[in-house]
Design brief:
Helix content is about 50%, strand content about 20%. The chain contains five helices and four strands; from the N terminus they run αααββαββα. Strands 1-2 form a two-stranded antiparallel ribbon. Strands 3-4 form a two-stranded antiparallel ribbon. A hairpin with a 2-residue loop joins strand 1 and strand 2. The longest helix is centred in the N-terminal third of the chain and has 39 residues.
Length: about 140
């Protein structure tokens, strides 16, 4: 009888551990799928596209990154703080436009590389944000 009780205790303990491991595996699979998609993409994307994945606006995500000392705004542009700047997260994209007088002008914008997108994914998940469904409404937290 005592042996049967011991086996039951062991089974319960390992059953709980097995459930926890299953939960961890499910989380890891979700993360791995995200990384596979992002890292397989060839191009960098603007912050607005990343923000939309999490139900945020571009301004709202910029504000979060600024609050957490990842980005700062200077001279009309966003810059990564030194500890992030050389990690390959962010690139500058140049586009040439023509004004109303037919004169060309250049506009620069920052884009997030696949490596940077993975970094932002981890950062946002750490704050409790999850990638939203495509049909989700974007939260306008520009004024927050």
């Amino acid at each position: 009888m005592k042996e049967r009780k011991n086996w039951r205790i062991i089974a319960e303990r390992y059953g709980k551990e097995l459930e926890e491991l299953r939960h961890q595996l499910e989380e890891a699979e979700i993360k791995a799928k995200f990384y596979d998609i992002v890292l397989a993409s060839k191009g960098a994307v603007p912050i607005g596209r990343i923000a939309a994945r999490y139900g945020l606006s571009a301004k709202g995500l910029h504000k979060l990154l600024e609050e957490h000392k990842i980005l700062y705004h200077k001279d009309g542009a966003w810059w990564l703080y030194a500890r992030y700047a050389k990690k390959g997260y962010y690139a500058e994209k140049t586009a040439v436009f023509t004004n109303d007088e037919g004169e060309p002008f250049v506009k620069f914008s920052g884009v997030w590389t696949p490596k940077g997108q993975a970094f932002l994914h981890d950062f946002l998940q750490g704050l409790g944000y999850s990638p939203a469904d495509n049909d989700s409404e974007v939260i306008d937290n520009d004024k927050a």
